[in-house]
């Protein structure tokens, strides 16, 4: 059975960076599940049909990282049929040996409630906005408003809302460098593997 690492958290908390680093260190596969929602939203038209017909080319679009694509993703992500259409892809991906790291919003709560390792990565609103603003070359105040709007929508939706799984280890990266955050995540993986 592949070893599953579930990493959830709000926007720009650093979960993708940690997920990529863990996968590289452990030789695991990595899936950024946010990309599935971003690609679905970016296709336009009927979001349920878009999710069902998602292709590799849709996932390779170079406009998926924008704030607008994030907002579109968050709107279609509240539709139960959209989420259902993306479950099989995530399960197939994660079935690869020796293991997989998936990052998103509902990996530890819905997609893999039995994941061996569950991390909930977070950081203060101001730190997250500053990080994302630096990445996109955007205004931090505008970014703060955008992230808050998206986090609120993601936390308040009925289906698979953003929240830590009861058994998730919470990792606040507000004052951590990337190296420190990755080291803590890796320590948790090693603790579980040793046990
Ligand atoms: O995947 P998620 O949206 O949660 O965040 P990310 O794309 O991994 O990280 C957002 C930005 O914060 C990236 O530019 C990272 O380099 C930076 N960052 C970080 O991830 N962790 C830190 N401890 C410090 C900065
Ligand atoms: O990198 P960042 O955290 O800003 O966003 P993302 O992980 O690419 O996710 C974009 C949007 O997709 C989120 O705001 C959620 O609405 C949605 N999403 C979700 O509902 N479930 C997931 N497992 C991943 C993303």
From TrEMBL:
- A GO biological process held by the record: pyrimidine nucleotide metabolic process
Where does the record place it?
Cytoplasm
Q: Which Gene3D superfamilies match?
A: P-loop containing nucleotide triphosphate hydrolases
Which controlled-vocabulary keywords does the entry list?
ATP-binding, Cytoplasm, Kinase, Nucleotide-binding, Transferase
Output a single Gene Ontology CC term carried by this record.
cytoplasm
Q: Which InterPro entries match?
A: Cytidylate_kin, Cytidylate_kinase_dom, P-loop_NTPase
Q: Which Pfam families match?
A: Cytidylate_kin (PF02224)
Reaction equation(s) it catalyzes: dCMP + ATP = dCDP + ADP; CMP + ATP = CDP + ADP
Molecular function terms from GO? ATP binding; CMP kinase activity; dCMP kinase activity
- State the CDD domains in the record: CMPK
Look up the EC number in the record and give it. 2.7.4.25
Q: Which residues form a coiled coil?
A: none
Keyword Cytoplasm set for record:
yes
**Kinase keyword on record:** yes
Which residues hold ATP? 9-17
Domain (Cytidylate kinase): residue spans on this chain: 5-40, 61-190
What family does the Swiss-Prot or TrEMBL record give for this protein? Belongs to the cytidylate kinase family. Type 1 subfamily.
Q: What is this protein called?
A: Cytidylate kinase
